[in-house]
Amino acid sequence: MSNPVKIDRSVKHGRHSGGLGIEILFPGLVLENGDSGVGAIGRIDHAHFRPGSRVPMHPHKNDEILTYLRAGAITHYDTVGHVEEVTPQRLMLMNAGHTFQHEEVSAPDSEPLAALQIFMRPRAEDLEPMVQFHDFDAAYSLNQWRLLAGPTEAPLVLRAEAWIHDARLLTRHTLRVPETPAAEAARLLYVFSGAITVTGLSLKEGESAFLDGNQDIIEAVVQSDLVFFTTDLSAPVFKKGMFSGNVLSA
Q: CA–CA separation, 112 vs 106, rounded Å?
């Protein structure tokens, strides 16, 4: 990818049901190469819950799912036996594998929830299901990248050659993109909130761009929450996950 590619809202799909509203990003659609995802990055859902909302028990299969909260809290129930609270400081990675179901509930007196549900592709199908939780030192990483998930030596372990970082960039602060951990990589910057400039692009909440190299400098126009994805394009990925899979497949 020799040039940055802007992904605008036209690539997103909206869905609203009860107290849940979701904007769905299929990052590969803008590349028009027959894959709705890119490497191990399958799909990104930007979700908003009203207090007291519930997502009933539902299945996942062959998805690696990072629940990334920036406001509010939910209680997670699953068929592996967990009953756990997820917050902006306590994140969850569901490695769905061959069989997995879960539901999410927000308390009636909770703060409205804002989150990403990030669907990554595993390196192989029908792995053993498991769920991971990690308590970070703080809800936000100010003006520096924080590794959330990766294949090794990460707080949450992805079963794929992919890495997810985040940062809160204060107004007028700048930040260089993370070092590339793979020789053949695709790199996606997602603006969860705020507005930034990078490599001649202006991006605001809900927008994203593919970037090249390690020299791109991000500047916050206003305080911004950023999520940065890297996927090794030379590594194997399973592209038929229930949510992370390629929706353009015949």
A: 9
